[in-house]
Amino acid sequence: MKVVYFLFALLALASSIAFSYDPSPLQDFCVAINDTRSGVFVNGKFCKDPKLVIAEDFFYSNLGPGNTLNPLGSKVTPITVNEILGLNTLGISLARIDFAPKGLNPPHTHPRGTEILVVLEGTLYVGFVSSNQDNNRLFTKVLNKGDVFVFPIGLIHFQQNVGYGNAVAIAALSSQNPGVITIANALFGSNPPISDEVLAKAFQVDKNLIDYLQKQFWYSNS
């Protein structure tokens, strides 16, 4: 019987390691500071003395509209641990996404967080692609005001404004710093560039097309 309990304990431990991306805090808060001389290093940041923590450490003012006058017609305004230092060790963040008509938040991934998105205004066409293991299935939905959609951690996903006016959405993410990898930017705008031979073979196209794509300006909307 003890062996059975031990095996269950190991399974529980393995599950917690496999599915916990931001470690659970063991204190009320651990407000990040940039002064490495007077803090304790916890989960990627140095932490302020708890006795010196104030309400402003948990506050962000005026999450207003983003400027969508850019080639993508969208603007992502992230609120991570870099914007609210009190998010350190709490395992959450959010972003506001503004869309001009036909604006696109292009295919991208968040390597450290699942995203749940709610539409505040407008109509969005959204979707994500499952992994090779699941045969790269595409899951899409048209969302209207008040609708909610989930993008699983690490999977490529996108949102596009398919309405006639502006659109606004709020995304919550299960990490204080979920990260973002925009697919086109990473593949064709890397520094230094990925070999055009590698990309040409990967996409099964002529190297001249790859060279053309690598010469383009790959805009970041965040």
TrEMBL record:
One of its GO terms (cellular component) is apoplast. The keyword Ligase does not apply. Residues 1-18 form the signal peptide. GO terms for molecular function: manganese ion binding. Disulfide bonds join 30-47. May play a role in plant defense. Probably has no oxalate oxidase activity even if the active site is conserved. This is Germin-like protein. It comes from Crotalaria pallida (Smooth rattlebox). The lineage of its organism: Eukaryota, Viridiplantae, Streptophyta, Embryophyta, Tracheophyta.
